[in-house]
Automatic annotation (TrEMBL):
Residues 1-152 form the N-acetyltransferase domain. InterPro entries: Acyl_CoA_acyltransferase, GNAT_dom. It comes from Streptantibioticus ferralitis. This is GNAT family N-acetyltransferase. Coiled coil: none annotated. It comes from the Bacteria.
Length: 288
């Protein structure tokens, strides 16, 4: 097996997509089979973006005969390292491919004080992360159709965000998770709607991708509650809403989601090194 860096090319983006589709799609091993086109485009775009910003943290595992069998995408933002993706095709699972990819990606984050991974419920993934020294915090997900009549109006102003709010967002990031997202905000703004709150009560922001809360950070639970309420009220009528990766530290989010009529379920783990679950915070799958 050969490990090599992911390159910012269409071919490598296709390889990342194919491995991920095989890993998370069961028997649907062909790239993109059963996946919405926008999901395929988003994953390919993420692979190329991280290959540009973090070339030392993105790796493909290749079999001399079978081609790509695994991928790890990771990033460093100030003093925080995050794993954006770890996927291994079924035929190569349980053979050390994932552990080797994770070790190479974690080597890129050597010197970072904190580590963050949004882990799945897959037992092999949980074992790999725990053996790598991560603390596993059981996570929950809110999903369903929002009932606006059950939600109180936000308790203060929430504004439409723009790129000029980047300094504010980076400041909130440092306070909540110990590292700014930096260039990730530009990438998120390309596909998400941004909500910002900034007043005497504090500061915060929330990205909404269709009906999914992609990322939320605030300096207080009150601000986080306001932002999440505004985001859920902005989900198109009848559309599916989703708020993932919630730990027991995010009771404020559970209160908002349950009040809105969303259903709560278990959904993997938030895997952490050198930090407690960031709060009030809802991490992003791709950008942590």
């Amino acid at each position: 097996m050969l490990l090599r860096p992911v390159r910012d090319t269409a071919d490598d983006a296709d390889a990342v997509q194919a491995v991920t589709a095989a890993s998370f799609g069961g028997s649907r091993v062909l790239a993109g089979v059963g996946w919405p086109p926008e999901q395929v485009a988003r994953l390919r775009g993420r692979a190329r973006y991280l290959a540009r910003t973090d070339p030392g943290g993105c790796w493909l595992a290749e079999d001399p005969v079978g081609g790509p069998v695994g991928v790890a995408l990771s990033l460093k933002r100030e003093f925080l390292w995050g794993l954006s993706l770890l996927a291994v095709v079924p035929a190569a699972q349980g053979k050390g491919v994932g552990a080797a990819l994770l070790a190479r990606a974690m080597g890129y984050g050597r010197g970072c004080l904190r580590g963050l991974v949004c882990g799945t419920r897959h037992p092999i993934a949980a074992r790999v992360y725990r053996r790598a020294g991560f603390t596993l915090h059981p996570a929950m997900c809110l999903k369903g159709v929002v009932d606006p009549a059950r939600l109180d109006a936000p308790d203060g102003a929430v504004h439409e965000g723009t790129p000029r709010h980047r300094d504010l967002m980076d400041s909130v990031d440092r306070r909540t998770r110990g590292g700014a997202h930096g260039p990730d905000h530009e990438e998120l703004l390309g596909g998400c709607r941004l909500f910002v709150a900034d007043d005497l009560a504090g500061s915060g922001y929330c990205y909404l991708d269709g009906g999914k809360v992609e990322l939320l950070a605030a300096t207080s639970r009150r601000l986080a509650t306001r932002l999440l309420t505004a985001a859920l009220l902005a989900v198109p009528e009848g559309g599916a809403a989703r708020v993932p990766h919630l730990t027991a530290d995010q009771q404020w989010a559970l209160d908002v989601g349950l009040a809105a009529g969303l259903e709560l379920s278990n959904s993997g783990y938030l895997c952490l090194r050198g930090m407690r679950p960031p709060a009030p915070y809802v991490p992003s799958d791709a950008f942590l």
